[in-house]
């Protein structure tokens, strides 16, 4: 039973990540490979603020979102001027840089040793400690984020983003500042990823840089691509699909030593086949990379 | 000390150059990022490892490993990219498929050979002293291999028919088609050349520091950076970019520590994206317009 709660909490965290990445990948058509970096920044910022500044969970999460949003503003400002492929490479580069900083700045992040003993969040004197309590806690936050995302997807802002995806020149000719819209989408996406990071940090109570590698970025991107880009249900389908496959493999009873590699092989095969036969993913509505 | 640093920078630059020339030939003609190139590199090193562990003679193992790697590179083009090309898929789709192929190959290798670092059964031999500079034998081989390959590829690109066609493919492939050039055949040739360079770089690196399944990522990223820094379409530029990265990495390793290496490479790339996109040796077009 505890294991089911753990799985559900992870599905919720990844749902937040996938929905936020979808704003960039699905709505502006850009392949971003730096999402794990924002996830990690959020996790580290909220953990460090809770432990060293003595803040509660919610204020430190708010600060973490703010800090991550500033980072993604800088990254977006640099990268979003570039054409599609170069944007991907540039976000790739930022992912490697931020991972390098998390890993090597031992004075602040304790580097490869990670941060141990992150306190569980408290709420009006009530401490969220057991798994079912934590599940209720993350569910509330996830529902809030999903509601925010849902209303965002229906808003005029996303209509403009969709228009940029379909026909950028037409939007330019209507007097919209396309780059500013893309940067805003990127910043929102980074900020929401930080929420997922904060949740992850207080849930696991231990973080180290290896949770936020390039592989993780690729995994989150794969969730969005496999589920389908450019609408609301795609990323959710993707999260369920990608997080439940390992569970099925566990039932088959593979030895742990090869399970990781085999999982990666399955993801890779799905990616290759989808790119060839179904570029809009399982439940998406827009073929990717039209820029 | 500074001489030793420069020497190390030149060696690193040579290795990055070999990888980058191959990547550049593919990128400049096909216009998408062949991420699976990093996996082709890993395949070459592991092929050599497997052949040597079957007790084949050293020279024959190397030649076989190179040939089989070229076959692998062509197979990737044939099985994965060709269908996409026929569908006129967008750059994003190529990038995703390529990423998929990379992950697939790396994990198959890890399944077969295991995740741990392997050493090639080859003695490093005596070090070479050159007026205060100490190099290992394999490093000297790395440098001279680079020199020969660079001269050959410059000659090839500028003075042979195929080389000129490859250059033309980068400019306007459709026009070439009108002239009766078989573009698909040319793409196979381009992938063969690229994979050849990757295999050389992988074998030279593998003999020096050993191999693990994830060894391909850093050389790939260095090569991408070098090609972009160098302005994509000129081998001279690519080599200049590669040496710039090699030098700066070695300086940083000296001042800070080896772990900041990748951070430095990519900071260089980002700064470059911020300020100008024409390449170290300037081209008329900006890099992201190509």
UniProtKB/TrEMBL annotation, chain A:
Q: What subcellular locations does the record give?
A: Cell membrane
**Record's superkingdom?**
Bacteria
Location, primary (coarse class) = membrane
**An example Gene Ontology CC term for this record:** plasma membrane
One GO MF annotation is: branched-chain amino acid transmembrane transporter activity
Q: Which UniProt keywords apply?
A: Cell membrane, Membrane, Transmembrane, Transmembrane helix
Annotated membrane topology: Multi-pass membrane protein
For this UniProt entry, which segments traverse the membrane? Answer: 6-25, 37-55, 61-80, 87-106, 134-152, 183-206, 218-244, 265-283
Q: Which residues form a coiled coil?
A: none
Q: Which CDD domains match?
A: TM_PBP1_LivM_like
> What is the protein's name according to its record?
Branched-chain amino acid ABC transporter permease
Species of provenance? Candidatus Brocadia sapporoensis
UniProtKB/TrEMBL annotation, chain B:
Look up keyword Transmembrane and say if it applies. yes
The principal localisation class reads membrane
Its placement in the membrane is given as:
Multi-pass membrane protein
* GO BP terms: D-alanine transmembrane transport; L-alanine transport; L-isoleucine import across plasma membrane
Q: Which InterPro entries match?
A: ABC_transp_permease, BCAA_transport_permease
Q: Which CDD domains match?
A: TM_PBP1_LivH_like (cd06582)
According to the record, the segments passing through the membrane are 6-27, 34-52, 58-81, 93-113, 133-157, 188-207, 213-232, 239-257, 263-281
| Gene Ontology CC entries for this record | plasma membrane
Q: Which family does it belong to?
A: Belongs to the binding-protein-dependent transport system permease family. LivHM subfamily.
Query: Which PANTHER family did the record assign?
Result: BRANCHED-CHAIN AMINO ACID TRANSPORT SYSTEM PERMEASE PROTEIN LIVH, HIGH-AFFINITY BRANCHED-CHAIN AMINO ACID TRANSPORT SYSTEM PERMEASE PROTEIN LIVH
Q: What is this protein called?
A: Branched-chain amino acid ABC transporter permease
Q: Which organism is it from?
A: Candidatus Brocadia sapporoensis
Taxonomic lineage: Bacteria, Pseudomonadati, Planctomycetota, Candidatus Brocadiia, Candidatus Brocadiales
């Amino acid at each position: 039973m505890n294991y089911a709660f753990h799985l559900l909490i992870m599905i919720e965290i990844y749902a937040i990540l996938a929905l936020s990445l979808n704003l960039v990948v699905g709505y502006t058509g850009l392949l971003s490979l730096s999402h794990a970096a924002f996830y990690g920044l959020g996790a580290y910022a909220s953990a460090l603020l809770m432990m060293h500044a003595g803040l509660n969970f919610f204020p430190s999460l708010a600060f973490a979102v703010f800090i991550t949003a500033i980072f993604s503003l800088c990254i977006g400002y640099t990268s979003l001027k570039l054409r599609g492929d170069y944007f991907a490479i540039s976000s790739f580069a930022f992912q490697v840089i931020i991972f390098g900083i998390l890993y090597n700045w031992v004075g602040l992040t304790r580097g490869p040793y990670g941060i141990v003993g992150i306190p569980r969040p408290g709420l009006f004197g009530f401490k969220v400690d057991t798994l079912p309590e934590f599940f209720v806690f993350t569910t509330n936050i996830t529902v809030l984020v999903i509601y925010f995302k849902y209303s965002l997807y229906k808003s005029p802002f996303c209509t403009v983003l969709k228009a940029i995806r379909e026909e950028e020149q037409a939007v330019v000719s209507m007097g919209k500042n396309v780059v500013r819209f893309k940067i805003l989408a990127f910043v929102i996406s980074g900020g929401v990823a930080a929420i997922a990071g904060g949740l992850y940090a207080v849930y696991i109570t231990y973080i180290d840089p290896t949770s936020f590698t390039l592989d993780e970025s690729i995994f989150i991107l794969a969730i969005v691509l496999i589920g389908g880009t450019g609408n609301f249900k795609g990323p959710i389908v993707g999260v369920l699909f990608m997080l439940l496959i390992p569970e099925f493999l566990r039932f088959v009873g593979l030895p742990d030593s090869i399970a990781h590699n085999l999982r990666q092989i399955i993801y890779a095969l799905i990616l290759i086949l989808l790119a060839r036969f179904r570029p809009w993913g399982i439940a998406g509505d827009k073929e990717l990379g039209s820029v | 000390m500074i001489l030793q640093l420069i020497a190390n920078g030149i060696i690193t630059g040579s290795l990055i150059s070999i990888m980058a020339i191959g990547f550049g030939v593919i990128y400049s003609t096909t216009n998408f990022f062949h991420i699976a190139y990093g996996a082709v590199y890993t395949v070459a090193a592991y092929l050599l490892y497997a052949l040597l562990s079957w007790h084949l003679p050293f020279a024959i193992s190397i030649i076989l490993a190179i040939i089989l790697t070229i076959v692998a590179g062509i197979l990737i083009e044939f099985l994965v990219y060709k269908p996409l090309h026929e569908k006129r898929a967008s750059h994003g789709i190529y990038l995703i498929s390529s990423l998929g192929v990379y992950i697939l190959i790396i994990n198959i290798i890890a399944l077969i050979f295991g995740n741990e670092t392997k050493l090639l059964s080859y003695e490093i031999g005596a070090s070479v002293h050159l007026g205060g500079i100490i190099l290992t034998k394999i490093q000297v081989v790395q440098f001279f291999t680079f020199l020969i390959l660079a001269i050959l590829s410059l000659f090839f690109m500028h003075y042979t028919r195929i080389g000129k066609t490859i250059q033309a493919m980068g400019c306007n492939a459709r026009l070439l088609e009108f002239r009766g050039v078989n573009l698909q055949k040319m793409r196979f040739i381009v992938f063969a050349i690229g994979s050849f360079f990757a295999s050389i770089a992988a074998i030279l690196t593998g003999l020096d520091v050993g191999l693990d399944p994830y060894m391909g990522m850093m050389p790939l990223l260095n090569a991408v950076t070098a090609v972009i820094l160098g302005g994509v379409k000129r081998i001279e530029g690519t080599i200049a970019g590669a040496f710039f990265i090699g030098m700066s990495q070695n300086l940083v390793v000296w001042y800070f520590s080896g772990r900041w290496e990748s951070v430095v490479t990519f900071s260089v790339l980002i700064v470059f994206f911020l300020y100008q996109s024409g390449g170290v040796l300037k081209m008329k077009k900006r890099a992201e317009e190509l």
